[in-house]
Amino acid sequence: MINRTQLKLDAKAAMRGRRPSVYLVSLAYLIILYILDVLNAAVTLKGTSFAEIAALPPEQAEAALDMMMNSVSVPGVLLGIAIELIVLVLGVGFSIYALAVSRGQEAGFGSLLDGFGIFFKIIWLNIVMGFYVFLWSLLFVIPGIIAAYRYSMALYVLIDNPELGALECLRRSKEMMRGNKFKLFVLELSFIGWILLATIPLVNIYVMPYMETTVCNFYNAVSGKGRGEADYYVYGDV
Question: What is the dihedral of CA 96, 98, 102, 104, to 10 degrees?
């Protein structure tokens, strides 16, 4: 049986005393995301956000929404897509950083950019995985959710094995998650209190690396990967 408490304790221990601090790296990551979000709004929505429109009276909101949609241009949309892809790859960079932290390996601010080394593989993996989950979702919502958990380790497989193709990453994730899908669901559910606290400014600087490092520990467990020189064996059946 996978010990959720131990996964979390290991995550906290791995984060403690890091240089640079995991909180500084998280802060840098969040600042970059904020800048990209502002830039995205500027190029696609002419600086207007949906939150600002939602705060307006209904009549004004409808007029503002029409103006915003009429201002959207093809170059702006293309730039917006490019920014979203950058955000996606930066997210992988943060996962690369958290995976290194979970294994006691050296990592820092530069790790956030490591995902760009496998940029196209990341994009393709997300496309293929999204397609598979979509197909399962056509049956009903629950099969789609199960499929999402079935392939949830594919990204970490790619990080560890950048030479692999998308289908092989998905296949290995499927094998790892056999008997472990519900365990990951319960692990993520145990963070619900932290997720609610993360709505408070700056709290996410702690919550985000804590959650991601814990999930990385879960991956280390189901994949049998080591943390440093010590193997991090599976706690339960795979």
Answer: 80
